[in-house]
Structure formats: structure tokens, C-alpha cells
Design a protein that fits this description.
The complex is a heterodimer of chains A (about 675) and B (about 325). Chain A has about 675 residues and is mainly alpha-helical. Chain A has 26 helices and eight strands. Among the domains of chain A are: about 600-630, no CATH class; about 635-680. Helices cover about 70% and strands about 5% of the residues of chain A. In chain A, helix 12 runs antiparallel to helix 13 (about 335-370). Chain B contains eleven helices and one strand, in the order H-H-E-H-H-H-H-H-H-H-H-H. In chain B, helix 7 (about 175-190) packs antiparallel against helix 11 (about 290-310). The N and C termini of chain B lie far apart (about 40 Å). In chain B, about 60% of the residues are buried. The model of chain B has no long low-confidence stretch (mean pLDDT about 90). The chains are: A mainly alpha (about 675), B mainly alpha (about 325). At the A-B interface, helix 15, helix 16, strand 5, helix 21 and strand 6 of A face strand 1, helix 3, helix 4, helix 5 and helix 9 of B. Strand 6 of chain A pairs parallel with strand 1 of chain B, so a sheet runs across the interface.
């Protein structure tokens, strides 16, 4: 095949993002123009980036560009292989949708906020993500990583006048630096062995790693990338930071920035550290299960729409890690075919989650934009004023709950298949973990469905609960276009999964040495199989067609039956009260009450009811109800850790007395120690 | 292709015909065990037919979700009915969706049913939706473990493959793992079809009802579709249980003779399972809502033990 112009497209996308960043800053005084430039250049960058990714995936063979920087260990080297192409494709799909959406969304910033600065950070985030996904040099990667963290920090704290926002930003930046520190140490360890900062040299040096070095590097990278991906127990920053950012940014943070952690894990665990022992894979699997189950259980207790979505990101990262962990175990057990199945499940879920989570955050953004609140208890009935937003949100809700025939179902199905195959393929007692993980995945899926029934129904159905939701209006057209594009992607990737999966061929060949994507397709592309002769099979396209075919007689029968008596509108049953009001509706808190009681060991719920009455408690004048759940990880893990750190810092204050003589002495002693260290042979 | 369509059409007719009958048989058996006369076996057909001839009242507060729900519930249940082996080992659409698709399609129906319950804005609907989604979530892992135990034995989630393997070792249900998996799945069956001791399909008492609370606002043809869908779901789950654990008489082809024998065995097995359900329903009182998770936990432990005992035997 001729070489396709991947390089030029990639360079153009980098150029568009850089120009956009600088241009936004330059014309920040003209908000309207700035909005056009900001969204236009981001869209251009995303289009070129998407083109490069598609061409790169079609090309199959990895491409490499490198520019020497003159600084030792540092070079501007980019590696555009199948993995990079895949993550760049994810980024491009989301960046395109978000930039179209932002066109309408940023309009309310005009005259109130600095769109120029917003645009600068927005482009910087996209640029740094592109660099992170393609960098082939540890330092370039870390610079991209740090710029990404800082740009994200700037965007999270964009509404900085709010105290909650500033606190969330602080938590985020602290966690981001712990993670950068872990990565720096991990790369330092690899550089010490390989003598170079180039990713290719890590690959060749992986064989020389002793098993303890490999273990240390694995733990460092797992913690580092795990913090970024928001896996439990490193997740506490995520539900704080994602909801307070502007909604178009929340969607990118949950959609792609978390995926940078997944990218890092895939790159390092499957490509850079050699073949990891099976305990590493099992650890990833177990952490994945814990994140999935706890993430969705915490999501269920939320009635802040955006924080609920943020907790679901933790859940879905968990599902991705289940696939990734299974892939690592199968690889070391000598089953590249199964490892490929699990890896495809993980990466396909990565793409799917990016798309539907972005869609849901954009939908939540439209709701917030229209009603001014994220609190579901104040919303309701939005399906009438906002039909398109509601429809798009429903598609996202069905997809994230893993229901057929949309894309979430396909990737969860692949994950189940890899877990079931894992039972037969591995030996020993640990293999019982695979079906157990499968059953926990089932629990996660069912709880996610419950949670999205709540999220959709309380927000969009029944009666509006406050003035904001009564006077709600549909979002501007550009926002609807952005959301519809992602909703269509959910449907297309669900129904057309069998036509998309061969795109993973090059990726699995590169990482596992076998082309596996096409193996999963049978019956001329109509049926998805688990890759074994009599294994499981499913076809979302046939399911969709069959559902439509069965719908025809049902519609016919009902329409004939309904011709006899016209259906009429009447009041819903109100128990004989004078009419149904929003006070009779089930609330989000009430909906999750049953689960709060069942899982009370985890939640440790506390509630307080105060009744004001004159004569008898049966005739109350006013009731105050308060309910909260215990933030277990914050209270039991992070608060003690923080206290310990502060105590240590107080002790250290003794040597920071402010005397210049003492400081000079410290410098001298340090210098002598360093010289001794350096001179030592 | 024509063969496929013919098989699918045949099984669809079978599913649509048998599903209400099964509900009628259970009702009658239950009444007899309680020394009542009970309704006619055909009463379920009459009920559905009656509902199709009634006008509908749609709540003023409801949106299009309310109207879409009955179709989704009915259509997903009917599709699932084509994916499970009833009389022959190869189900018409088993190639296009195995046991995972069955579970998730039923979940799609439930998702919309819960939305429909909340759409009218009355407290009853929300109450039903909340309970339904909660209990089904707790039942899900137990169901999956039981299904995995069988699927691992067949190393496939394709229901026809599972049935074929089961037929080749018909007496395997005596193995401890199969018995435990059956016990787990039976409890899930009780929960999923809304029967005593989990839910009581015969009452409209707000303290106890689950499924009936969700569909309280539905009337006329919409209610008929939902009731029909629910009866198909019951048929499907019961068929799943009898044919995975007791695959006797499943014919390997779609010949007339095979189908006749298959049908005879199928009805016998279903009747026996219905008797078991009736026995459980009559001898137990409905559990308090918050005792139900304990029952489902028992089911989960059965499932886990089933899985572990596949190591041993």
C-alpha cells in the first residue's frame, strides 16, 4: 500500500490546536470573534486529528518522526502506531462534538467571562492530549502529561469565584502531582536500565529488568496512571473536580483525560515492561471490579446530575480495567487469542465510554444551561421543553447501562466472553475469580441501569419541580448538533460493531502478535463471536432488525384496537388528593432509598428528621429532613493521611527557622553530600 | 434464510399462544391447592382480549416514554422468546444472541418499564420502579453465576450449544453443581417473575406491590401489551430453567415427529415446574421488602457454590 499522508494530517492538527491557543489569547477582547475562532480551530484540529487517526489505522504500519532537541535524553519524537491512532481517534470524535457544542455553550460567557483564556486552555488541553497519545520519549510524554494536568486545572477552576470549585481544583492538582511523581519515578527506573528516554529503548530493555524492578515499575505506573484514570481508591478527586468544570470541559475530562490513564496503562503494561507476571494482571482485575461496583454504588446515592456522571466514570474505568487485567493474565498464560479478545473488550469499552459519557455530560450541560441547576431534586419534566436533549440523553443512558443494541452492550458482552473463556484457559484456584468478576460485572450493569432510570426519569420525566425547570427551553442548535453526533456514534458503534472491530487488527498484532479483531466476526460481518468455534455469538444488527420487525404487528394491533375507542388524557391517580403536584412525585433520594438500606454497611447512612408540631406529631407544621452517607474513603483513608502529613510538616518547621545562616549551612552540607555522592566511583 | 424465518414464525406463534396459558395454569393450580375453584384456565386470554377492546386513559403528565414503554416491553420479550430452545435444541435466533443477550434484552424491557412507571409522576409508579430496579439488580449476579456454571460446562453462552451439551449428558442434573445452580436460578425465577415470596401478582397493596405499582397508570391495549410481555417473560425464564437443567425430549431437528415429541416433553416439564412454583407460592408468605435481599443472597451463595463445585466434580 502507498504511504498515506498521516504525517501531514497529524502536523496540521497540532498546528490548528497551537494556532487556536495563541489566537484565542490574542483576540480575547473581542468575545464574539474569539468564540468563532476558538470553536472553529478546535473543530479543524479535531478533523485533521481524526483524519490522521483513520489514515493511521488504515495504514497499519507504525510511523515515527523524531526531531533532536540538543538536550540529552530529550527529543521531539512521536510514534504514530495503532494504539496511538486508536486513542487519537477517540480524542478526535469527542473534540469535534465538543467544539460544535461549545459554539452555542460559550455564548453565555460573552461579556461575562474571558473566552480568550478559556479558548487558550481548551486548545492547550487538546494539544497536550494529542502529544500524550503519540509521544515516544519519556520526557516529551511527561511534559505533555503535566501541561494536560495544568490546562485541566485551569479549566476545572474556571468558575473560581466559587469556594467549592477552588477546593476541588486544589484536590485535583495535588492528586495530579502525586501521579506525575509516580510516573517520573517509574520512567527514571526504566531509563536507568535502558540508558535512554526513548520508548523503543524501554521495549528492548524490558528483557533486562529483574523481576523486582519490574514489580516496582508496575506498581509505580499503576498508581500513577490509576490516579489519572480515577480508579478506587485514588478516585476522590474525580467526583469533586469533574462536576464543577464548565460542562463542555467535564465531558472532555471524563471522556478523554481519564482515558489518558488507560492509554498509559495499555502502553506500559503491554508494550514497555515486558511480560508482566499474572499477579499484576489479577491486581488490575480486582481493582477494576472494586472500582466498577463501588463507583456505581456511590453514583446511585448522588442527586447532583454531574457528580452522578462522574461516579459512573469510575465505574466504567473499572469495567475497562477488568478487560485489561484479564488481557494481562491471558498473555502471561500463553493465550494471545484470549488476551486479544480481552484487550479489544477493554479498548472498545474505552471508546464507547468516551462517547456516551461525553454525550451525557453535554446533555447535563444543556440542562444546567437551561435551568441553572445540577440538582436533580429541583428538575423534572424537561422532556417537554427539551425534547432533543432528552432523546440524546436517553440514548446515552441506554448505552451506558449496557443495554442492547447500543455500543455499551457490545463491549460489556466482549468483556463477559473473555472472563468466561478465562475460566477454561487458566489453571489453579485463581480462575474462580473470572466468573466471580463476571457476576460483579452483572451487578454493576444492573445497578447502572437503576441509576440511569433515576437520572433520566427524575430529570426529564413527570412534573417540573422548580421555577427553573418550569421555564426551561431547548438548547441552541449547535449544542444539539454536538449531542446528536455523539448519539449517532452510540447507535452506529452498537449496530455496526462487527464492521468496526477489524480496526483493532493492527493494534492486537502490534501488542500481542496476532490479528484478532477480524477473528471475532462471522456470517459475513453480521454476527459477533467470541472467537471460539462453538462459543458465544451475538448480533446487535439482527437484534435491532428483529425488534423493528416485531414492532410492526404490535403497532398494527394496538392501532386497530385503539380505533374503537379514542385514547383520552386524564389525571394520574392521586389518592383522592386535590390533584397531582410535584410534591407527590418520587424523588431521586426516595428512588435510591431501597439500595441505601440494603447497602447500609457501605454507606453508613445518617439521617435526621425534626418535626415541628403543636398538638400531636401526626399533624406536623413543618418537617426538616436531612440525610447523608459517609464518604468512607475520604474519612478513613485520606483524612488520616492528610493529618499525618500536616503533623510531619509542623515538625519540619523547626529547621525552617528563617535564619539565613542556617540556610547557608544547609546549602553547604547538601553540596558536600552531593559532591561525595558524585565522586564515589 | 426461509428455513430461519419459518422456524422463527413457528416459535413466535408457539410463544404467543402458550404464554397466557401458562399464567392461567399457574392461577388455576394455585386456586385448587388452596381449595378454591379459581378462574378458568383460559381466563388470561380473555383478560388480554378484553383489554385490547377497552379505551385508554393516558395520564396528562406523561410523555412519549409512557406510550413507547408497552411496545419495548412486548417486543423485547417476544424477541427473547425466539432466542431460547423450547422444543428443539436449535432455537431460531440463537445464532444472533445467547444467554447474555437474553438477560440484557429483558433488562432493556425492564429499563423502559421503570421509566414508564416514573413518567406519570404519581408516587406509586416511582415506588414500583425503585423496588423493581433494586431487586433485579440484586438478583442479577446470582442469575449470572448460575448461568455461568452451565455456560462453563458447555464452554459457550450460545443457548443452542448449551442445550446440545446438556442433551448429550442428560443425567448431569444430578451433579451437585447443577443442582445448586438450579436452586439459585429457581430463586431468581421467583424474583424476576414477581411471585410470592418476593412480589404478589394478585394484590394492589401499596406496601407490598412491585410490578403492579409500576403499571398502575396503564390501561387498555397498552396494559394488554405489558401483561402479554410479562407473561412471555415468565414463559421464557421458566423455559430457560427447564431446558438447561432437564433437557429431556429436546429434539435435535425441526421435523414434525421431533417437534411433536419435543412439545409433549416440553409441556410436561413446564407443568412440573409450574407445580413447584405453585407449591412455593402457597406454602410461603410474602417476605418483607427488606428481607428479599437476604433470599437473593442465598441464591448468590448457591450460585457461587455451584461454580466452586464444578472444580470438585
Amino acid at each position: 500500500m502507498n504511504t498515506l499522508p498521516v504525517g501531514p494530517a497529524f502536523a496540521l492538527s497540532l498546528a490548528a490546536y497551537s494556532t487556536g491557543a495563541l489566537a484565542s489569547l490574542a483576540i480575547w477582547r473581542k468575545p464574539a470573534l474569539c468564540r468563532y475562532i476558538c470553536c472553529g480551530s478546535a473543530l479543524a484540529g479535531a478533523s485533521f486529528g481524526g483524519l490522521a487517526a483513520v489514515l493511521g489505522i488504515l495504514q497499519g504500519a507504525p510511523l515515527r518522526w523524531s526531531i533532536s532537541s540538543g538536550i540529552p535524553l530529550f527529543a521531539y519524537s512521536f510514534d504514530y502506531d495503532a494504539l496511538a491512532g486508536f486513542f487519537n481517534l477517540t480524542l478526535a470524535i469527542l473534540a469535534g462534538a465538543v467544539s460544535i457544542y461549545s459554539f452555542g455553550y460559550l455564548k453565555e460567557f460573552e461579556g461575562k467571562r474571558n473566552i480568550g483564556f478559556f479558548g487558550f486552555l481548551f486548545h492547550l488541553l487538546l494539544l497536550s492530549l494529542t502529544i500524550v497519545f503519540t509521544a515516544a520519549n519519556a520526557f516529551l510524554f511527561l511534559i505533555g502529561w503535566e501541561v494536560m494536568a495544568l490546562a485541566a486545572y485551569g479549566l476545572v477552576t474556571f468558575y473560581h469565584e466559587d469556594r467549592e470549585t477552588r477546593r476541588a481544583g486544589l484536590l485535583y492538582i495535588v492528586m495530579a502531582h502525586i501521579d506525575a511523581g509516580c510516573l517520573l519515578l517509574g520512567f527514571a527506573l526504566l531509563m536507568q536500565v535502558s540508558g535512554s528516554a526513548d520508548f523503543a529503548s524501554f521495549r528492548t530493555a524490558a528483557g533486562h529488568l529483574s523481576s523486582s524492578q519490574q514489580a516496582v515499575a508496575f506498581v509505580l505506573f499503576f498508581v500513577g496512571f490509576g490516579i489519572k484514570a480515577g480508579v478506587i481508591p485514588f478516585h476522590i478527586w474525580l467526583p469533586a473536580a469533574h462536576p464543577v468544570a464548565p460542562s463542555n470541559i467535564s465531558s472532555l475530562l471524563s471522556g478523554v483525560v481519564l482515558k489518558a490513564g488507560i492509554y498509559g496503562m495499555t502502553r506500559v503494561f503491554l508494550d514497555g515492561l515486558g511480560v508482566l507476571p499474572s499477579w499484576a494482571g489479577l491486581l488490575v482485575l480486582i481493582v477494576g471490579v472494586a472500582s466498577a461496583v463501588l463507583g456505581v454504588l456511590y453514583a446511585l446515592m448522588e442527586h447532583d446530575l454531574k457528580r452522578l456522571l462522574a461516579y459512573h466514570s469510575i465505574e466504567n474505568i473499572g469495567i475497562i480495567l477488568i478487560g485489561l487485567g484479564a488481557a494481562l493474565v491471558f498473555r502471561v498464560a500463553g493465550h494471545p487469542q484470549l488476551a486479544g479478545l480481552a484487550l479489544i473488550a477493554a479498548l472498545f469499552h474505552t471508546l464507547n465510554h468516551a462517547i456516551f459519557k461525553c454525550l451525557l455530560f453535554l446533555g447535563a450541560g444543556s440542562v444546567l444551561h437551561s435551568t441553572g441547576t445540577r440538582n436533580m431534586e429541583e428538575l423534572g419534566g424537561l422532556i417537554r421543553p427539551m425534547p432533543v436533549t432528552a432523546f440524546c440523553f436517553l440514548i446515552g443512558a441506554v448505552a451506558i447501562s449496557g443495554l442492547p443494541p447500543l455500543n455499551g452492550f457490545v463491549s460489556e458482552w466482549l468483556t463477559y466472553q473473555s472472563l468466561l473463556a478465562g475460566f477454561g484457559a487458566t489453571g489453579g484456584l485463581t480462575r474462580i475469580l473470572f466468573p466471580l468478576a463476571g457476576s460483579m460485572l452483572a451487578l454493576t450493569g444492573a445497578l447502572a441501569a437503576a441509576c440511569f432510570v433515576k437520572a433520566f426519569a427524575i430529570t426529564f420525566l413527570a412534573l417540573p419541580r422548580n421555577a427553573g425547570s418550569r421555564s426551561a427551553h431547548e438548547a441552541p442548535r449547535s449544542m444539539l448538533v454536538g449531542m446528536s453526533w455523539l448519539a449517532m456514534a452510540c447507535v452506529a458503534l452498537g449496530l455496526g460493531a462487527t464492521w468496526f472491530l477489524p480496526a483493532f487488527d493492527a493494534l492486537t498484532e502490534q501488542l500481542l502478535g496476532q490479528r484478532i479483531g477480524s477473528n471475532l466476526i462471522s456470517s459475513h460481518g453480521w454476527v459477533l463471536s467470541a472467537g471460539t468455534p462453538h462459543g458465544g455469538m451475538v448480533s446487535t444488527s439482527v437484534i435491532a432488525i428483529a425488534l423493528l420487525l416485531l414492532l410492526i404487528p404490535a403497532l398494527l394491533v394496538v392501532s386497530i384496537a385503539a380505533r374503537r375507542f379514542a385514547s383520552k388524557r386524564g389525571p394520574a391517580w392521586d389518592c383522592g388528593l386535590p390533584g397531582l403536584t410535584e410534591d407527590n412525585e418520587y424523588t431521586a433520594t426516595a428512588f435510591s432509598k431501597a439500595l441505601r438500606m440494603i447497602f447500609s454497611v457501605l454507606y453508613q447512612p445518617r439521617r435526621e428528621i425534626q418535626t415541628v408540631f403543636d398538638v400531636s406529631p401526626y399533624f406536623p407544621k413543618a418537617i426538616r429532613f436531612e440525610s447523608e452517607i459517609e464518604p468512607t474513603f475520604e474519612k478513613r483513608l485520606y483524612v488520616p493521611l492528610k493529618d499525618l502529613l500536616l503533623r510531619f510538616a509542623t515538625r519540619m518547621r523547626a529547621i525552617q527557622a528563617g535564619s539565613i545562616h542556617a540556610y547557608l549551612a544547609y546549602i553547604f552540607v547538601t553540596l558536600v553530600l552531593l559532591l561525595l555522592f558524585g565522586v564515589r566511583p | 434464510m426461509t428455513g430461519l424465518i419459518a422456524k422463527a414464525g413457528l416459535q413466535l406463534v408457539l410463544v404467543l399462544l402458550v404464554a397466557p396459558l401458562l399464567g392461567g395454569i399457574i392461577k388455576t393450580l394455585k386456586a385448587r391447592l388452596q381449595t378454591r375453584r379459581g378462574p378458568n384456565i383460559l381466563q388470561s386470554y380473555r383478560d388480554i382480549f378484553k383489554l385490547f377492546r377497552k379505551g385508554m386513559v393516558i395520564p396528562e403528565t406523561a410523555s412519549w416514554i409512557f406510550s413507547a414503554t408497552p411496545y419495548v416491553v412486548f417486543v423485547t420479550a417476544a424477541l427473547v422468546g425466539l432466542m431460547i430452545p423450547m422444543t428443539a435444541t436449535d432455537a431460531p435466533l440463537s445464532l444472533f444472541g445467547g444467554v447474555l443477550a437474553v438477560v440484557y434484552l429483558l433488562a432493556l424491557g425492564r429499563f423502559f418499564l421503570a421509566l414508564g412507571g416514573l413518567d406519570a409522576g404519581s408516587s406509586f409508579g416511582g415506588l414500583g420502579s425503585s423496588r423493581e430496579m433494586t431487586l433485579s439488580a440484586i438478583a442479577e449476579p446470582a442469575m449470572m453465576l448460575a448461568i455461568f456454571t452451565v455456560a462453563l460446562a458447555a464452554s459457550s453462552t450460545n443457548l443452542s450449544e448449551m442445550a446440545k451439551v446438556a442433551v448429550s449428558q442428560s443425567w448431569k442434573f444430578l451433579a451437585p453443581s447443577q443442582m445448586l445452580a438450579f436452586a439459585a436460578l429457581f430463586i431468581v425465577l421467583i424474583a424476576e417473575t414477581g411471585r410470592i415470596p418476593v412480589d404478589n401478582p394478585a394484590t394492589h397493596l401499596e406496601l407490598t406491590m412491585i410490578h403492579e405499582a409500576m403499571i398502575l397508570e396503564y390501561s387498555g391495549p397498552y396494559l394488554a401489551l405489558i401483561e402479554y410481555g410479562a407473561s412471555i417473560k415468565q414463559l421464557v425464564l421458566m423455559t430457560l430453567v427447564v431446558n438447561t437443567f432437564f433437557p429431556f425430549g429436546l429434539s435435535s431437528d425441526w421435523t414434525v415427529r421431533g417437534l411433536g415429541v419435543g412439545l409433549l416433553f416440553y409441556f410436561t416439564k413446564m407443568l412440573l415446574l409450574a407445580c413447584l412454583i405453585v407449591l412455593v407460592e402457597t406454602t410461603n408468605a410474602k417476605l418483607r421488602l427488606f428481607r428479599v435481599p437476604e433470599l437473593l443472597m442465598v441464591s448468590f451463595i448457591f450460585g457461587a457454590l455451584a461454580l466452586i463445585s464444578t472444580f470438585l466434580f
